[in-house]
Fold Antibiotic transport system permease.
Amino acid sequence: MEIKRTISNKIIFVLLAVILATFIMGWILPVGIDKVSSLTYREYLFSTYTVFTQFGFLMFAFLVAFFINKEYSGKTILFYRMMNDTSLTFYSKKVLTLIIETVGIIFSTLLIISALFKDFSVFFQMFFLFSMVAIQYIVIVALISLLMTNILLSIGFSLLYWILTVVFVSFGGALRLFAIFDASNELYGKVGDFLESSSVFLGTEDNLMVFIYILVIAIISMIIAKLNNQRWLELGTR
């Protein structure tokens, strides 16, 4: 049902446009701005990874917030309640739908790009990283949007969260874990070094850290979503 909703309200097409724009910007930045004459497969993927990690919140915020907040404006929450949904199941369905569509689009786009470059050496590793970065945005923005009915507030607080995490990273220490994908964090440098080498996979500990980071964010978000069931009902019936 949720996938049908993304088609009917054209969310999936906007999502496709956002992801394609990200991959296109990954090409434009080095070629159009830095005037790189010849871009290799790995250089292009690192440029695209940079776009994903540095501009992703801006590009995903409106899309995710609209998908969630649209249900409040039409008081569709009452329908979900009649279907025995709770704030947790509502949140989970929305997030899972966006994740499935996002991962599918990333996989297809990266597959085509790898075929064009005739190089699949780091396909699976970069698919994992691109997907994890996107999932992070979806999980966080969806949670913020769940707690608010106004799309502008949802976007505003999402961007505020993004800015605060960047500030936290600058302090170093354990605070760096608030935004492991940020360019000032060590993971970004490791991805760059990995793509400059002949390796086909990032270090096991780094991949594990990324997976655990996303898992922790998802668990915390689901707990918060569950605890705000009453607020979800109140916002949905105003």
Notes: The chain is about 80% helix and 0% strand. The mean pLDDT is 90.
